[in-house]
Amino acid sequence: MALVCAAKMGFLRQFFIAVISFSQFLSIVAEETKSSESCGFPAIFNFGDSNSDTGCMSAAFYPAALPYGETYFHQAVGRASDGRLIIDFIAKNLGLEYLSAYMDSIGSSYYHGANFAAASSTIRRQNRTFFDGGSPFPLEIQVAQFIQFKTRTAKLYKQGQGNSFPKPEDFSKAIYTFDIGQNDIAAALQRMGQENSEAVISDIVDQFSNQLIYLYSEGARTFWIHNTGPIGCLPVAMPIHNAYNYTPVDGYLDQNGCVVYQNDMAKDFNTKLNHTLVKLRALYLDASFVYVDMFSAKYQLISNTKKEGFVDASEICCGFHEGGNHLFCGNYNATINGREIRVGSCQDPSSHISWDGVHYTDAANSWIANRIVTGSFSDPPLPITRSCSLA
């Protein structure tokens, strides 16, 4: 009898262990399933410069003209490329429509968000007009425009007229994307030797952080933040396009022909930005701040141009840049030193990384976007579809 009871007790013990183990297994599976689910962002709100401007400056000032937009849209649509920008590919990856520029009132749709990015914009305020190559839309103004957009759409919804805009509850569920800082670094480079670059970079990052905190106070919870790219690799920065018969001193250029000191300043900004986002994660535990290493993604492409099917990264598809003479894409033909110059686009933009010496082609933007949306260049390493996670 004792043996029978012992056997029964042993069986029950094994049974309960199995039940508990199975329960734990289901819990683990449920957690993994939850973590692998898409965030289902209902909208995107984007802030930035020409790298993600989908029509702000074109609507606010002189409209863009062909050959910009020629490859994909077959017309100029306000983008600094022959086709789509990285933000367009991000929207596509999230199953949303391309973002309309906030300043563009003609034929725009804002149901899935809005784009506040504007070409030439900076994080810090600037004292340059549009005609000097500046922008009246620094990040501070872009954020103010967003607040106005949010406030006015909420009012429209209360009046039963908000069907063309994000729902009030969508603002906290949306993803907030940023691609800005390149023009701040360029401005700092122009003033090198006149001011403390270290202090300037710190101030730029601090002002960036302040705007992120402001957006958090307005309900933003998912932040997808691009660092600045390798500006020393932009063809217009390379000596080959700025002077005749110029041989740089050792250490001025890296193995890809990029200007080292310019990339070093970009890296300094990126390092400080990353450290700042780490601090913000610790302060705002209910928010997700994803740092996207755009510098590394772009530099990887530039380092492997031939392998990835592109011509040399220094080659410019549209415009003329030789010996310090710069005629940008869209300019009329000109005469330089008695030579007739045709300022058109190349025969095959898809073979080029650089569209106009500063911005990337549709093909290059597609290549970069396909790498960053997976989370391969992110900290935390989250794909964009799951960037709302607090991992």
From TrEMBL:
GO terms for molecular function: hydrolase activity, acting on ester bonds. It comes from the Eukaryota. Residues 1-30 form the signal peptide. It holds the Pfam family Lipase_GDSL. Keywords: Glycoprotein, Hydrolase, Signal. PANTHER family: GDSL-LIKE LIPASE_ACYLHYDROLASE, ZINC FINGER FYVE DOMAIN CONTAINING PROTEIN. Belongs to the 'GDSL' lipolytic enzyme family. This is Alpha-L-fucosidase. It comes from Phaseolus coccineus (Scarlet runner bean).
